[in-house]
Amino acid sequence: MAALGRKGQKLLRPVALIGFMGAGKSLVGRGLAEALGARFEDLDDRVATEQQQSIGELFAVGESAFRAAEMAALRRLMRERPGIWALGGGTPCTAEARTVLIQAGCLVVWLQADWPVLLERVTGHGRPLWSNGSAAARQLWEARRGAYEAAAHWVVDGAPPAAVVAAGLAERLREAGYVD
Predict the structure, then answer these.
(1) What is the mean pLDDT of residues 126-139?
(2) How many CB atoms lie within 10 A of CB 114?
(3) What domains, with CATH codes, occur in the chain?
């Protein structure tokens, strides 16, 4: 388990975790925020709360409507004090979102995991974009990898347990001067 944040620590810039469904963005994000004494927020949860609908319900209306709500929520989130943000799997796949992240001075960390790890983690969890089956999801994963690479400042192995990834990332952020 990640160590509790050190008293008086302050995150100096926002940190956005990106990656495909099942990469561990939310679990790692919560552990990382705890380790640094920082605020954590999951962008999908924020969108669902703001829109008063589940992500599945929003996708049922149409992905473009969901993405518009997601972009508005991302813009608002980036204006808030620095924290650890878990972005949706498709968030960094648009130039507009990548620009918002850059303008906010956000450190973008790609939690990269190989397909078998992702498949094991998401099978049977009712993810909206998973509804077309694993072959379609794998194509989407392959299509998004270039966007993740383009957006990321750091690439971190997301395959180990979330607590291990969070502890390692917390130490790396401290060593790199992202924590005061």
Answers:
(1) 68
(2) 11
(3) 15-172 (3.40.50.300)
